[in-house]
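User: Can you write out an input/output pair for a complex, sequences first and structure second?

Assistant: Here is one pair. Inputs:
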Amino acid sequence: MAQTSLSHPTAPVSLEAAPALPTKRDALLSLGARCSLPVILLLAVGFVAPLIAIFAYSFAKPRTFEVFRSFTLVNYAEIFNGSNTVWLSFLWSLGFAFATCALLALIAYPIAYGLNRVFGKWSSLVSILFVFPLFVSENVRLYGWVLFFIKNGVLDGTLKMLGFEGGPQILFQPPMILAGMLYVYLPFMLFPMTLGLAMVPRDLIDAARDLGANRWQIWREVELPLAMPGILIGMLLTFVLGIGAVAEAKILGGQSVIVISHDIEIAFTYSQNWPLGSALAVVVTIFIGALTLAVFSRLDLDRLLGRR
Amino acid sequence: MTQEAAPKLPILQLVGVRKTFNDFVAVEKIDLDVIEGEFLTIVGPSGSGKTTLLRMLAGMDQPSEGNITLHGERINEVPPNKRPTCLVFQSLALFPHKSVGDNIEFPLKVRGVDAKARKARALELMRVVRLPESYHSKNVMKCSGGERQRVALARALAYDPEVLFFDEPLSAIDYKLKKVLEKELKDLHKETGKTFIYITHSLEEAMVMSDRIGVMRAGRLVQVGTPEQIYNHPVDRFVSEFVGEVNVIEVKKEQDGAPWRGIDVPGAFHVRPPEEDAEADHAFVVIRPEYLRFLGAGDTAQNSLKGTVYNEYSLGSRIQYQVRVGEKVMLVELSRSKALPIAADRSVTVGWDAADAITVRA
Ligand SMILES: Nc1ncnc2c1ncn2[C@@H]1O[C@H](COP(=O)(O)OP(=O)(O)OP(=O)(O)O)[C@@H](O)[C@H]1O
Ligand SMILES: [Mg+2]
């Protein structure tokens, strides 16, 4: 650019100003790049670097810290070896994630609907009530559950004191893990879903009704497809969080079930087998990544939102 | 009562219909008979309750008081999907995730019409509203404003309603296309023979299309009549001003038979008594700009006012002058051939005859 204006004989005014500007522009990044610099740095240090480290570790010799110095596929072979029960953990995680996601979709939809259409001026209060538990650490909340449900705990003890038989022993079993997950991840389904439903214009519902549709037809033909982006994002979030969940299984489930994240944790801690843990983490990450991509490529946000 | 040649029955009747939102009265005691097959337009400024009225007629809201009857049957609580009426929304309310064809077929689909018959009907309706057949599979959001308009219309027609409501469907469309669509809508009304109730805040639009016009103001239906009645016999200052740009002079009667005294401009004026109330002694004289003229030497008129021209606008074949008379601005419209040679700051006398002005009660 500087060259063209300099060599231009009929632009004498720009001669003085022109050289200064382009050099300045060349030296610094564009405004967009400068603005995103903090995020890029954060992601580089906090996300990309650990990812690379884990990836590298997964090819290191088992039970060593010889990262970048050794290359072996033994860790992966170990995971896919049929005699290893890690696939069971993975199935448990998958099952919990799937159940959490499906049940939460059913549980959150009526609430999201209510927040949008029924609760009126109360909906902000109701939303706050749903956000509130997030202010308390997940572990603290789960230990609260344990204290409440455990033998001779709050429920059991109180009932016994009052002369009853005592509370049901439901702790340390898979259903309790699921219950904990439903409770912990509800907001992650509820809020995207509420947003999704809020994006359905009131007029469209009225128009569908005016054109003869009954409630069920309105829901199927108009409301659900238009709220779908929000619903799918909620489902994706809860599914991904569900696969990675570990606290529920550890705290509410005792040791009755080992989930995949727990396996990874064990590999990094007790067994001091970082390469195996890394390989497991890589497999899980690839699985979740592929799933996410599959959903998002199916889900054409623009089309669903009617922007095209 | 004498038998008329073709007795036209009211299809929709409103009796004392009122709608309040908490303490706010949006629609106040409306009585109205809608005649079968007519094109009735409701006009009124923003917030006058037009949409609220229409929503009650369509069944989306229920009146707080009063009754709405269709063919003599009370329908206050009948839901919209059970009424033989259909509303074309201000926003059009097209389904963004459906194609043009699927939008039009929607009312047929929910009624259980099979896919083949649906498509045939959709294509037929697309011809009626002048949409090319190839648009059947086009995404509605890719259509232009005018095309969407036609889709919304075709969709409403697919429902095959007896009464069609329109809530300012042309408000977001450019002038030229608006004129075209207005004409098409009028033609469609003739072809279908259905009852059309149309809402707009442009009286110009109403004048072009309607058999009858109702003027709303602050929730009330101030006047209902033919375009001619509304134009030439407005019941009050509001209606007269709504019809278009007018000059309004406030006058008081001092003595029977004598000229009336001007209140907001000095002078005495020959005034016809208000049609609505011949005994009134306080009234507004409404003079359309085209009925005012500049008086040169030797010209006479029953009434005259002295003022100064301070602005002129070209309205195509006509020129509008703004004339300052004391504190007031009067509008005078002349055909271009009669234009003043040098207008600005010129002292002029504007005049009119009592017969050219309308008097409405204050
Ligand atoms: N659901 C509602 N709750 C409270 N007030 C309302 C509601 N709907 C309408 N109103 C009020 O009623 C009045 C009439 O509204 P309406 O929409 O009928 O006006 P309109 O004549 O259609 O205006 P516009 O030409 O701007 O569309 C407005 O003052 C509006 O604020
Ligand atoms: Mg409106």
